[in-house]
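Recall that a protein's primary structure is simply its ordered list of amino acids. Everything else, from secondary elements to tertiary packing, is in principle encoded there. The following example makes that idea concrete.
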Amino acid sequence: MSSYQEIKSMTKKELLEELEKAYAEMVKKRITVKTQHQKDTSQIKKQKVYIARLKTALKEVEMEDMIKEATEANLNS
């Protein structure tokens, strides 16, 4: 898991790839807890928080892109 500063420095493509990996990791953790191979259920919560951070950073990147497009459109008009 990366820190939020590292997450914020990622590109949109990198964020999407990392989000996909994070979802797969969460599924693995849920399975290991359900099959009682691991008793530390806090790992699932930590993974959910990490996914939320990735989604937040992705949303911020998308908003920045939208603002950039809007300002360029206004300048070209």
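Helices lie at 4-8, 12-34, 42-76. DSSP finds three helices and no strands in the chain.
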